[in-house]
């Protein structure tokens, strides 16, 4: 299978399905586009597990442990950000990410989920976690789908630009912006 194929056909004409590990830099569910994408994948027979950022609800995860739950029948692994140990782990991981472009905390979490779920495809949303996903894909010999929702470098420039009606805060809005409506 090449990285550009999402579903392949066997010699008998039957469709092969995949176990997809989808990596999101934001909490799930947040972006209706992602929810629709997962629904479409599941309707065609694929299995999906989501690895995402914890919701920040104060449940205080340990630095190398994730919280697992189910949202609409989809297994969701949340990489926690709360609690003193989790904060220290996030700061250290972010420092390494800044230096080399790979987020160690996410690398460990995604690698563990790929192993536990026996994933056949890694699907990474947005640029900040792409290199981390590529490292896991290379280690595991998995195809990696890069799902980039926007021109991220240009978006960052716009978010940092000062002016009337434009955010002065350099932090980008969450993926999917304000697309909270269902459709």
Can you give me a brief rundown of this structure?
With 183 residues, the chain is an alpha/beta fold.
Overview of the structural elements:
- With 183 residues, the chain is an alpha/beta fold.
- It is built from five helices and eight strands; from the N terminus they run βββαβββααβαβα.
- The protein has a six-stranded mixed sheet with strand order 5-6-4-3-7-8, with helices on both faces.
- Helix 3 (104-117) packs across helix 4.
- The longest helix is centred in the middle third of the chain and has 17 residues, at 84-100.
- The chain is globular and about 45 Å long.
- Residues 1-8, 58-65, 166-171 and 177-183 have low confidence and may be disordered.
């Amino acid at each position: 299978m090449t990285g550009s194929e999402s579903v392949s056909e066997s010699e008998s004409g039957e469709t092969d399905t995949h176990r997809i590990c989808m990596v999101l830099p934001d909490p799930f569910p947040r972006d209706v586009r992602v929810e629709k994408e997962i629904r479409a994948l599941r309707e065609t027979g694929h299995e999906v597990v989501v690895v995402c950022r914890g919701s920040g609800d104060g449940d205080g995860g340990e630095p190398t442990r994730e919280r697992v739950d189910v949202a609409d029948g989809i297994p969701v692994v949340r990489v926690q950000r709360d609690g003193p140990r989790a904060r220290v782990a996030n700061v250290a991981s972010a420092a390494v990410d800044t230096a080399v472009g790979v987020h160690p905390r996410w690398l460990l979490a995604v690698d563990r989920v790929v192993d536990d779920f026996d994933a056949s495809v890694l699907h990474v949303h947005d640029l900040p976690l792409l290199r981390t996903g590529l490292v896991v894909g290379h280690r595991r010999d998995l195809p990696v789908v890069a799902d980039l929702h926007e021109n991220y470098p240009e978006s960052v420039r716009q978010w940092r630009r000062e002016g009337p009606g434009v955010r002065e805060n350099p932090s980008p809005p969450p993926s999917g912006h304000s697309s909270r409506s269902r459709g």
